[in-house]
Amino acid sequence: MPPMSARSLASAALQEWQTSERFADSIIQDLLERNALSSPDRAFARELFYGVLRNLSLLDFWIDILRDGKLDAGSRDLLRLGLYQLFILRTPGHAAIYETVHLAHTRQRGLINAVLRAAQRQHHSLGEKAADATPAVRLSHPEFLVERWTKQFGSETAIDLCQWNNRPAPIYARINELKTSRRDFLEQFSDARPLPSDEEFVEFDHLPREALEGGFCYIQDPGTGLAVRLLDPQPDETILDACAAPGGKTGLIAQRMQNHGTIRASDRDAARLERLTENMRNLGVTIASTSQHDWITGDDDQRFDRILLDAPCSNTGVMRRRIDVRWRLQPADFPRMQRQQIALAHALIPSLKPGGVFVYSTCSLEPEENEEVAAQIAAEFPALQLIEQAAITPFREGFDGAFAARFENVR
Fold first, then answer.
1. Is residue 217 flagged as an active site residue?
2. What is the pTM of this model?
3. Active-site residue among 162, 217, 243, 363?
């Protein structure tokens, strides 16, 4: 079998995404690991795959104008790739069309060629029709999400949020002060740009492989620091990070504790737990023990000074990074997630010591998963006093969306 090109790898990733329940990041990473592409080709494959997913509704809108009748899934994916190159990347027509047609099975090539050449001829009119389309089509978000955010934030803000989700995410990293100092890190990695708003974080143009492999930093959005700020971990305490994988917040907690004390970092997913363990080892975190545990179904007698419940959620605050989440979500997911989040809180709060701190957090923008859960925790646990809650709205603060609520056990 000949080696895969960037375009053929992106096409294979799209096909797998359509036919499996796996998330986009996992699919593209596995394919890249199995195929030896140059760095530019790896970047181009990611751009094509993620770009099509970001613009799915818009690309299908154009396909439906250009082509009457049904299309098989493979042909539709190839047309999406071709149109993304022609209209979004502005790839020269001869390259975009020829290379896309070349990916098709022999019996598909005539159709793919005809549709893409028609698109090239109708470029201006297709652009005008897209400009007149609904925000859900133009900005490629499910209609129910656009309607939900319009009710929640207003129409202009909902559009701002959709536009934010469609922008490529910057590469942020947290300086790991368990292995280096901020000054030494910035001297050693001169391409790192400090963030004025948060001195623990820096921005890179390219993935800092040497810094990552040495454990000197961890790829992490500054928005993730909100929950740890409210948790306010201290040295020599016993802390539970209940849904810890892959370990970004665990590492930050250990840093705030100066690697003194005890952290129990648990997760119910064995594969994610393995990654968590590897990350803690690489970061030089020596106070964290990792364990596989389902807090809803499993009993536990240990008591903690502070507990962080970074709950599984809809991820609507991080859609810029988790690009295909928008296409996986359904309206029923929000009440389902809320039930799971409340069940986790009920399971964890009895493990909090008197005078202890419990922080509930998500990367969601939805009130059902945020303020409503915090209010229910306060109502159902009178001994817990809600001290503070805070949120990050992505396009306003400029980082991933997040919510956190801090409770103190006053009993």
1. no
2. 0.94
3. 363
